[in-house]
Amino acid sequence: MISVLVFVAMLAVLVFMDRKNFKRDSFFLLRRTRKGKGLIIRLGTRFPRGWKLVGYVSVATGFAGSVIGLKMFLDLLLQAVTTKEVVAGLAVVGASPTSQTVIMPGVILVPFWYWIISIALLVIVHEGFHGIFTAREKVRIKSMGIGVLAVIPLAFVEPDEKQLEKKGVWPQLRVFSAGSFANFLLAGLVLLLLISPLFNVFGTTPVALMGYEAREVMISEITHVDNNTISSLNDLRNLNFSTDEIITVKTSGGTYLSRPGILKHELLKSNISVVLMLDYPAFRSNLSGRIIKIGDFDLGDIKDPDIYQRNLSLAMEKAGPGKTITIVTGNRTENRSYTLTTASKPYPEAYRPDSNVNIDIAIDSLIPGFWQFSENAGEIGENIGAYLSALSGQLVRINWEYTQRKVNFYRWLQENATSRNVKSYAKTRILYWEGEASKYQRPGYLGIISTPGAGGVVSSVSIKPELAGLEEPILFVSGLLFFIFLINLGVGIVNLLPAKPLDGGRMWDAVLKRYMPKHADIIMKFVARFILVVIIILFIAAIFPIGALL
Prior knowledge:
By secondary structure, this protein is an alpha+beta fold. The protein has helices at 2-17, 37-46, 48-82, 112-136, 161-166, 169-195, 233-237, 260-269, 281-284, 305-319, 355-366, 370-391, 400-416, 420-437, 471-494, 503-515, 520-541, and strands spanning 23-25, 28-32, 92-96, 102-104, 107-111, 141-149, 152-159, 202-208, 214-218, 222-225, 228-229, 247-251, 254-258, 273-277, 291-294, 297-298, 324-330, 335-341, 343-344, 444-445, 450-451, 454-455, 458-463.
């Protein structure tokens, strides 16, 4: 907090000392300068062919980002009007005076220094690239400089708009797209740094199970606890148990397990619902601690949590259902041994479509063949992801659960698609994945909270021992790099939305004026107003569940 006040005080002093050169423009204090202008012009004019090639990539990225950004907004809008919950996804990023990130509906407050440095870098690269491409297109830079909005640092480059418009469509597109492209480049470089061996400073160690498979059950649904009939909340509270052994809880929706101590604790927390355990061997055996051995499958020396979970899953696949096995938990100095019989791995839940799938189906009804195109693109993306994972030593495994999820997805698609071609395609994929599923044995199951295809485990994350003493600077730099990436990526996409005065809107406006001059203004005004309405709805949806009213 002290450093924030010092920064604000220093900024105020600097602006006051140079007050003759700062001019107020609406809410901004701007200082125009010629410093740096020569450098930008030299950079833009020195490599014209190279910058032209970069410009084409920038324009392609700009239009792709514009379409992706608009689709993301429409996905969030569809989610907002079709669900009865608040929809997180759109938020204003501001500065928090504390060292903690504060997340509220529609607002994310990040630590002040993360925020101020991220915004400063965002503005510098964004406006710098606008200036470089303005110079590359031999358009006059009318003015440039720095400024402040409250304590937010600003930078600006003002090209001669009339001269730029006379240059034609492509020069305008290169200049308009350059800012967001620069933000994407910065975000990409930061991401590469974060995942590179140079920043391999954190270690993770699996330490314990996440917990048992459980469900929240309404108290009014409970009918029996062991042999005791339950007709009210008081009946539950008046139960007496001589031991803390497992009790059976029958409800109108099924049978669950608990222990007297756990049930009493749940009743203290709520008089409406309680959390009850599913009938699986982990809870019946009171399994606890980090699993270090399943039968002859040794997990004790594995430090990487992803590899640990994958091997835990492999061990249960090897064990299979209905098998009596010995499990050892704890550590090398103090271990506990459990003998239990595995259950069958539950079938995955029915597929729940997201808005992307619904939108693709709707588009296919208008543009036949779009679904297959989208499906093929998705498979290419999956293959690329699998290849990248393989390069990092993390192979993507096809197993029983994976094939069952594929079957569920294509069954849903066959039932819900409107196109005959899509239905027929889904039918062939069901047959294929059912055939694949028959190749795999159904795994055994313990009943611990899990991620898809793996057992659940809580991992501790800490800085590697050889870097002891450097915790504070490492945590600061890693946090800063994360927010530089996040803010540059987010602002870059929003800036490309097809609404003026955003750069994305200016790009589409330039194209429409070239090919549809009579209708360009009407189209752009409609789109801008539509996006403004969507943004307002999304901010409301982040606070209030709009779908509950529809």
